Inverse folding.
């Protein structure tokens, strides 16, 4: 079987790591693979890479290419590298809206009867309204956002995304659950004696908004003497960096035991920070695969913090114990000007919906407010930075406030070895290879057919469900 793996670029990051793991997983198998990218590859793990300039990001810049040029470039490079046309196109994040030509190119390939596995890591419907609008603007008339057919299949990272596509009408035979393989760097050569006078609780993340940095500061308000709460990296985006700096100032003003973006100081490597940590924490409100729930145990560290059940259910089904995590951190509504909070929260939600050109009646907004504030409390993770800072300050100044919040992080070291064994059993590269090859065979062996009905609006509706909304995802 000849397979062409396709992605916009091969910069360091999640999708590139998965592609590199795929090449490793397929080595020595009956699958002959090449990789096609819009830009040259600067790494050393992919032996067979072709550059298709038409595949690079087009958002925000003019291009003289069209979809036919992209199809031609893909076919030419794949044939040159594989010796003949591929039996299957494995395309990563094809519906993300990063390239205005790709969607029409996919429809062209599908209509030609070619086999494709469209591998979704991120959905534009999930907090990326600009990408979503760009994708719709670029699509030729009649071309839906999700090409579907018996020789067109989709792979997703978690049960939530699988369920969303299935309920939107995706045929079950065309849908594959393909969790990422897990392979973390060894700590063997890392320093483990940093901050030896402190108990270090590390948030292994880049501090973008959805990572909910304010919640890390909130936990630090209940720190014991000698505790140090830290994050590894600051954001790169200027807007996110400005917000992140406001948290740095907040921690300094309240004299909290917090060091944000320690890895940016250049004094320590990331692995040195992990090796020196007593525990890892996550407070993120949105994830894709959810590697942050698995890495700590592979490093021999306990994990504390926020659970995302829609993301972690598959891990739990595989026997991984995450019961010490919390699903929400309730804050009394009485701590706020309730009318102002309601106005600001609903306005933020409405802006989020309208960014997707979805308009709702006030009664629906009222229903959302009632769901969010049931029991006279609201989840800290649903608030924006201004409201979160109010909570952090109140908690830092008042022991009774901390008691009202019930701040008590559960650090369960007893499950670390147990979880590590389960992770290595269910999410190793060999298991991934078998899942991947099974999906390849299913798609290639499918009979050709015309497109089937699929309603992409149901995908959007699912992601716009109020249960997933946080003010941290809408300005």
């Amino acid at each position: 079987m000849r397979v062409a793996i396709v992605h916009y670029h091969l910069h360091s990051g999640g999708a590139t790591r998965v592609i590199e793991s795929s090449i490793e997983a397929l080595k020595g198998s009956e699958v002959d693979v090449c990789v096609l990218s819009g830009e040259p590859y600067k790494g050393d793990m992919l032996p067979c890479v072709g550059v298709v300039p038409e595949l690079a990001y087009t958002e925000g810049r003019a291009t003289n290419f069209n979809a036919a040029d992209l199809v031609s470039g893909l076919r030419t490079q794949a044939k040159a590298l594989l010796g003949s046309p591929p039996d299957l196109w494995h395309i990563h994040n094809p519906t993300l809206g990063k390239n205005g030509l790709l969607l029409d190119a996919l429809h062209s390939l599908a209509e030609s009867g070619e086999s494709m596995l469209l591998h979704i890591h991120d959905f534009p419907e999930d907090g990326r309204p600009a990408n979503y609008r760009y994708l719709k603007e670029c699509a030729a008339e009649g071309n839906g956002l999700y090409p579907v057919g018996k020789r067109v299949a989709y792979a997703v990272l978690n049960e939530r995304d699988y369920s969303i596509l299935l309920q939107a009408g995706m045929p079950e035979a065309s849908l594959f659950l393909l969790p990422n393989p897990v392979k973390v760097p060894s700590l063997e050569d890392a320093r483990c004696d940093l901050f030896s006078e402190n108990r270090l609780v590390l948030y292994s993340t880049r501090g973008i908004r959805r990572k909910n940095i304010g919640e890390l500061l909130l936990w630090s308000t209940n720190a014991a003497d000698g505790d140090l709460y830290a994050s590894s990296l600051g954001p790169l985006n200027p807007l996110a960096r400005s917000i992140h700096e406001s948290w740095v100032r907040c921690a300094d003003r309240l004299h909290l035991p917090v060091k944000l973006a320690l890895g940016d100081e250049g004094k320590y490597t990331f692995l040195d920070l992990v090796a020196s940590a007593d525990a890892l924490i996550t407070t993120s409100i949105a994830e894709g695969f959810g590697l942050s729930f698995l890495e700590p145990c592979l490093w021999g560290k306990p994990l504390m913090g926020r659970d995302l059940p829609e993301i972690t259910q598959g891990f739990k089904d595989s026997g991984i114990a995450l019961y010490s995590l919390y699903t929400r951190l309730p804050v009394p509504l009485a701590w706020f000007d309730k009318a102002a909070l309601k106005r600001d929260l609903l306005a933020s939600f409405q802006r989020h919906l309208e960014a997707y050109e979805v308009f709702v009646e006030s009664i629906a907004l009222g229903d959302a407010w009632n769901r969010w504030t049931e029991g006279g409390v609201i989840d800290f993770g649903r608030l924006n930075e201004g409201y979160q800072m109010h909570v952090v300050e109140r908690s830092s100044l008042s022991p009774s406030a901390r008691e009202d919040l019930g701040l008590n992080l559960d650090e369960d070291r007893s499950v670390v070895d147990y979880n590590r064994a389960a992770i290595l059993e269910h999410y190793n590269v060999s298991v991934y290879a078998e899942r991947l090859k099974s999906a390849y065979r299913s798609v290639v062996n499918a009979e050709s057919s015309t497109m089937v009905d699929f309603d992409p609006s149901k995908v959007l509706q699912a992601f716009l469900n109020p249960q997933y909304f946080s003010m941290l995802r809408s300005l």
User: Anything to note?
Assistant: The mean pLDDT is 93. The chain has three domains: 2-180+428-447, 199-326+410-424, 328-409.
